[in-house]
Amino acid sequence: MGKSYLIVPDGGVTTPKGFKAGGLHCGLKKTERNDLGAIVSEVPASAAAVYTTNLFQAAPLQVTRESLAEEGLLTAVLVNSGNANACTGAQGEADAYAMRAQIAEALGVAKHQVAVASTGVIGEPLKMDRVSAGIERLPECLKGGAAGSDDFCQAILTTDLVKKTACVRVVVDGQEVTIAGAAKGSGMIHPNMATMLGFVTTDAAIGAPALQTLLRDITNLTFNMITVDGDTSTNDMLVAMANGLAGNAELTPAHPDWAAFAEGLRYVCEELAKAIARDGEGATKLIETTVSGAASDADAQAIAKTIISSSLVKSAAFGADANWGRIIAAAGRAGVPLNVNTVDVRLGDILVLEQSRPVAFDEEVALAYLKGDTVAIRVDLHMGSGQALAWGCDLTYGYVRINASYRT
After folding, report:
1. Structural element, H or E, at residue 208
2. How large is the average pLDDT for residues 126-132?
3. Residue 87 in contact with residue 56, Cβ under 8 Å?
């Protein structure tokens, strides 16, 4: 069966009907890169969000939760980089609310229809004079098309090396519906609401409750299945906005095109998740781990996450070392049952372990494969039908260099 979506290679968060975006440099970053941005819908959009599980949560998360709780609608999302506004006490909360109020006034929308997100250094007060001056100029920077999307993507980056976007089109009720997304994330990335900021826009008509359920389910299969370094941050947030301007009948699980829409949304989230993993701080390659034959999908997820999170597995990938012992050691400590006599392991198509016994393989062929920019680890437990995918990156000297001097 073919895919139900069409990939839009040059699409971004402004590709769905009725969305504009933009960004500018307000002075939070030392460089001249954009550090303040926004996405705006021309009509209030149904909204959903997923947040970090870290108990220390940045002030913008509280503000965004309150906004969505009012009506489940958003017209705008305001984002700054260069400062997380986390662990900043009452002043940090006041600053996040002030950001929401100012952009709402500048756009002429209700405060509770604005979400706020921040990313950057933890524990430093926002330079609100700079943020406020930037917000004053931001509405005139909003635009449609690739320029608006690119400016916004630039505004949300921290240690990221590349902008991360994805876009697809699906047909719902005979109408063309577009789903797009942008994300940032490079360090402090770990499953269970991966450390990141993510923003999804769509012109589909879908109610907030249905969108929330779908977003959470898809997050568990995509953003919650990536890792860079095992750290979950204080600011993680994934926000989705659906403004209904495509003209379709409201999507619900009973709608005949629900599955097509869900598949398109999953593709966007999965592409963004993989882009974050590939762009891990200091990373040189993407690692994709597939676990099959588990007793359940949940067991497969636990094993895949443990393998992809292993510093030893990640280091072996960096060194192009076909050390399958590190893979089975990680699988064995994942906390779920497995039959230690029936495990197969492949590196790409190279079988290195069969029925838990070593298999002779060509080390030079394995070395050449592992030197590529993508490494696929495939583990078959031969216990059931459970399966899962997880993504991560290698652990390099560059990761230590970046994080040894992050504040400076």
Report:
1. helix 208-221
2. 97
3. yes
C-alpha 149/C-alpha 324 separation (Å) is: 42
Question: Band of the pLDDT at 193, cuts 50, 70, 90?
Answer: very low
Which residues carry a binding-site annotation for substrate? 158, 184, 195, 281, 403, 408
Residue 18 identity: G
Fold topology of 286-404: Ubiquitin-like (UB roll) (3.10.20)
Integer Cα distance of 394 and 399 in angstroms: 9
Token representation of residue 102: 């100012």
Residues contributing to the annotated binding site = 158, 184, 195, 281, 403, 408
Identity of the amino acid at 370: L
Q: What are the backbone dihedrals phi and psi of residue 295, each rounded to the nearest 5 degrees, phi first?
A: -65, -25
104-136 burial, b at 16+ Cβ within 10 Å, e below that, comes to: bebbebebbbbbbbbbbebebebbbebbeebbe
Per-residue pLDDT at 251: 98
- Which pLDDT band, with edges at 50, 70 and 90, does 270 fall under? very high
Q: Kindly state the average pLDDT of the residues 192-212.
A: 86
What is the domain partition of the chain in residue ranges?
Answer: 5-276, 286-404
- Please identify which of the residues 14, 15, 52, 195 carries the catalytic annotation: 195
Q: What is the pLDDT of residue 57?
A: 85
Catalytic annotation on 195?
Answer: yes
Residues 6+ apart with CB under 8 A from 94: none
CATH class as words, domain 5-276: alpha beta
